[in-house]
Amino acid sequence: MTEVPDVVGLGAEDACEIIRRAGLEPFGPDGVAAPTSGIVTEQRPIGAAGAEEGAPVFLWTHPGRDGADDLVSPMPREAADLDPV
Prior knowledge:
Layout: E1 2-3, H1 12-21, E2 25-27, E3 39-44, E4 50-51, E5 56-62
Parallel strand pairs: 2-5
Antiparallel strand pairs: 1-4, 3-5
């Protein structure tokens, strides 16, 4: 029995490499190919669970900071915008 490494919070490429080094096989949700980008937000089985060597570990990812490049941050409010009471 192999212990499943906890890879939540890691980049997809690093997480998949760690899973493979543990003797397990990374997959995306619903058995699709292993994720290649994003941040791992969830995994099954969970970290520290036991699994047979070669067993699948399913990883869910989120774009993370890569997707934040398109976002526009709000401008800070000026002190004059505040209405003192």
